[in-house]
Design goal:
alpha+beta, three-stranded mixed beta sheet, 16 strands, 12% strand
Amino acid sequence: MVDGKKVVIACSCCQALIIILTGLVGIIIHYTTLTGAEKIYVARDACGTLEGWKDYKCVDFDPKATYYDYDNQDVAIPEDQVYQWKSSQGKICQKDDADTPWVTLSQTCDEALTMCQIWLLDSNVGVSASVGSKDPVMQAGVTVVDECVAGNCKTPEQKHLDARCGLTDEGLIRTGLVYEYDGWIQSDMMVPPFPRPALWMIYKLVQVVRNLGKPTGWSQGDGVGHNVELLLDSFPLMHIMLGESSPVVHVVSAVADFFKFSLGPTLMLGILTSMEGAPCEDNAVCESNTEKMYLSFNADFNMTTWLYAATGFHLFLMLFGSCGLACCIGSKKIEEGCNFSDNKGPKIGAAILTFMDVVIVMIGLVTLLTQLSRAKIGFAMLFNMAFRFNASVEVDIFQFFALFVLFYDVGATILYKMNKALGFSEKSGSGS
């Protein structure tokens, strides 16, 4: 007969090894590909559609006017640089205010691309191409003429541009559809100081340690170990209020586990998991221009940033709560205070962690819904997975293992919950 505890231990150990390997590869990518990028371009939003930008409208470009950028309001935009702000139809996104008629580079009067980013590891690769003029533009010795740009394209061509993050067939960047993402605050949003893969790895290892509680015996009984495992589970306050043997608790916490420990952390890694090489389709010129260029189709990096922050704070609370309970060992008086039934302190801690579980699940769901706004609907889009494996070796390895962990988590969660439910059944049976 198969020993359920040994199966859980074996599966959890394999899961831990894969998580550590994936996390280490991801950390390497963070400090090479992400922090090593010389330039980052981000798809522009549609003019005046975002909250806080409703007073911006598309107006006809005036070659005699002086324009000021919203991000640099004191210095007039040089005449030879204004083309970056212009759309293919000679429009410019400008604030509808006579006193502050600023223009913004982050929004376009053309049909906006779905959210994507272009990462340049070498600023000399991927020559920028203007879509603001019908005349040829000379840059770095390459003549670029406007093809079918977003504002003049039919739906099939728009999908083509979406799939390429606005790149021309030669692999050149259309500066009318994307803008350079710079500034230390913005850079920290895209590439935070503490690597996302490192946070992902630690957060998921907490899940593995929790799963090993009962099989290895450190959370057996009703003492400190049991309380620590309970706090690490999803919705711990529900376990206390309804009882840990409740079928509702097992089902709800299993679903929450997937969103909290699997889906949420994976979406947080959206920039890396969706990263791919430029789709050159055997075009030699394109391959030469995009040799050190990667595209990332993270639907909304603002949401993934919130998810990153919430995950980090939640991890801190889980570890702090667990350490707090572990300190109960060695003092009988304090150890008695760890009883959830008689002490309000642990219940408050459980309520805080339950609230954070709800926050993590909700942000994960919202981030998932932002994925649905992308042009192509499919499994790869839904989970921010590239499925192309045409980037650098380390990026491809990371994506493969991250995808494997996502599927592995489903089985590990079901196995853990089933083993836990059987344990409660055996305990109640022996008690009667």
